[in-house]
Amino acid sequence: MFWNSDMGRVSLLLLGLCLSSPLLAADGQAAKSQRDEPIFIESDSLSIDDVKGISTYQGNVSFRQGSSSLRSDKLVIYSRNRQEVEKIVATGKPAHFDQKSEEPGKDAWGEALRIDYIAAKSLVILDGDARFRQGENQFTGNRIEYESDKKVVRAGKLVAPEGQGRVRIVIQPHTATPVPAPESGGEKAVQP
After folding, report:
1. I need a surface site. Which of 6, 35, 63, 171 has the fewest CB within 10 A?
2. Per-residue CA distances from 157 to 11, 161, 165, 177 (Å)
3. What CATH superfamily is the domain 2-170?
4. What is the pTM of this model?
5. pLDDT at residue 46 above 60?
């Protein structure tokens, strides 16, 4: 652990923590190439419980591994034996992730009030004012689930608690001019 007194923030380099499952990989190729990348996390405060395998980062959290990045107000990492991530939970107003793909036009980003990553299932759950974009295709809804290894997206009543919710999708044809990404704070930027 390294304390940067100039910024009053904690900088932590975690080597090998996510070797088995990189955060939010948008495709299998990116996941494989990131497994050997170190993880960089910065936050205003840090609490690590080695016995329970829980690391909690609070205040302007920034997570980066390879071409993946995550920003949130709070980040909790649940790990097994400090070597294998089981689950990551990011919360914010909103929490936001970016994933650069090795394939042109396949970058992904998402934001929601809560983002969960379940490593064993390669599952990203965006919950609360959720937005997800892969390439030029956009999904907006209250809850969106994305299985990155299978490239499966589920949203709306299918995954929403108590069957509530709707989803809005913009799928771009290969030759069309892309619709701009939705603005934070409302769905008004998504065009049918």
Report:
1. 6
2. 40, 8, 5, 30
3. Lipopolysaccharide (LPS) transport protein A like domain (2.60.450.10)
4. 0.73
5. yes
